Amino acid sequence: MHVPAKPRASRIRYCCRCVMPATKPDLLIDDEGVCSACRSYEQRVEVDWTARREELARVLDQYRAAPGSNYDCIVPVSGGKDSHFQVLTMLELGANPLCVTATTDMLTPIGRRNIENIKKFGVDYIEVSVNPVVRRRINRLCLEQVGDISWPEHVTIFTIPMRIAVQLGIRLIVWGENPQNEYGGPTGAAATSRLDRRWLEEFGGLLGLRVRDLVGQYGIEERHLVQYTYPDEAAIQQSGVAGIFLGYYVPWDSLQNAVVAQAHGFETYPHAVEGALFNFENVDNYQTGIHDYFKYLKFAFGRTTDHACMMLRRGRLQRSQAIEIVRKLDGKFPSTYCGLPIQSILDEIDLGYDDFVRLCDRFTNKRLFVTDENGRLVKDRHGNLTKINYDNVDAS
Length: 396
Fold this sequence. Notes:
Helices cover 41% and strands 8% of the residues. By secondary structure, the chain is mainly α. The strands form four sheets. A three-stranded parallel sheet has the order 2-3-4. A two-stranded antiparallel sheet has the order 1-9.
């Protein structure tokens, strides 16, 4: 007997300007129905960007090393289009940067070629690759415990550049955009130009799981976690290391960054990446599709929503267009990513397909998706879910 699908009575609330749902962690939607990310963006028109760039030059001068004694700054880079833009900007300003890569979880061939491309700009470069056996164990453990396969990457992109800065006595780290500004977060965090330990602990994607919590699980020992550990506060204070967001000083725009990067040899995917609107973002890590899918299961938005919102705020899409794009592309089951079948990705962490599907169901917030009369998630033949509503006015 066929059991008809039945949406729950609850509804997802969306920003009235973009298509970001109120379910996004740290996002605030005000009394006028506008989200904090849109509010942050509208404030950009009031910024004197010429003055901000001059301020950036003064910051660089403040931290600049004596010629030949050390590097002026560290630029953490993944090889992506934003990394290209960050390095090029520092070189334009006359800085002598040390580029530092915390190697991604499951690097794609395009990702490797883009890392090598940055080196061609004429920079010194350090790449740190953590123990791959332990890394795979952490990937699986964090997927099972907090629903984030990319947790170890989110930790090391912050800890490794800071550890190298302290060890080499480099006093400035130049990060990219402030995610709390670009994607929405508390006002104080969105407006800051600095990244410090407090920001990392609150917004760095740890999801309540501490590095020391890994010890004793899947054979992980404390000695395996050196690169996952943030330097102690005394060492940071003694070294005087500071971290700044480049996006505070320049009008951050991922699409423009991609254009600049491509003009300097950055390689894109042949077509839009699965689950995304563009072909130039998150092309370096085969596990990203799983990461983005679990975000969708928990909060009912994925990478397509992120992209559509950025395009909306910059006047490149109409809201009605964005709603249809999100409905069509967002949150699809990650059967492939960058062309690699999901089983090959799961094999890397020794996880079976059926166990993966059960994990997906366990982390799915059923209040946000259509279920049948017995409370079971309704899926199409590809395993895709349907949100209970895609806008404030629709019913399905």
